[in-house]
Write a structure and sequence with these properties.
There is one protein chain. With 170 residues, the protein is an alpha+beta fold. It has one domain. 26% of the residues lie in helices and 18% in strands. Strands 4-3-2-1-5 form a five-stranded antiparallel beta sheet.
Length: 170
């Protein structure tokens, strides 16, 4: 893919190039409202301790937060058992890819920071993210807490996610 406008915002801006680097960067961003009321014997724990959970594990909740905040369309990329939810929009006629890391016009940059290898033969499908990211999931008792944390991250750095106010030099 050749990008006619190239830019990136947020954590894409020189912080990390690989999944491991990005995961390390995001793991330093703590949830200020984190509480895990479960004892060690419980099989359910609040996993929303830091922002890395939105890169791999609960990316659907971050996509839901982006969709609710900005109206972006949500997508799922899947290859085998690996998947990642993200949002996509158009900026100056070019597609942009948005997730917890921020916005990029580069599909290659977007893919390079993911745990799964989606470069070849991955399936991309549009998602009804309001239906997909259900907050009453019995396997995630803390999904509502995760959504609150995702919204907090977006409100802390709207410039990482909001393409309506971008001032890019071409």
């Amino acid at each position: 893919m050749t990008d006619h406008i190239y830019f990136h915002t947020g954590y894409h801006t020189g912080v990390a190039e690989t999944y491991r680097d990005m995961d390390k960067c995001l793991s330093k961003i703590s949830n200020p409202q984190f509480v895990d009321l479960e004892d060690d014997s419980s099989e359910f724990h609040n996993v929303y301790e830091d922002a890395s959970i939105f890169l791999q594990g609960s990316c659907q909740l971050f996509s839901l937060a982006l969709h609710k905040e900005f109206g972006y369309d949500a997508f799922e990329i899947r290859k085998g058992t690996s998947c990642h939810f993200f949002c996509q929009a158009t900026y100056q006629g070019a597609p942009v890819y948005i997730d917890v890391r921020g916005v990029t016009t580069s599909w290659e940059e977007f893919l390079s920071g993911l745990l799964g290898d989606f470069h070849d033969q991955a399936e991309i499908t549009s998602q009804d993210i309001e239906e997909t990211a259900k907050l009453d999931d019995p396997d995630d008792l803390y999904a509502a807490d995760g959504l609150v944390f995702a919204k907090h991250l977006i409100h802390e750095h709207p410039e990482y996610y909001d393409i309506s106010n971008l001032q890019m030099n071409e």
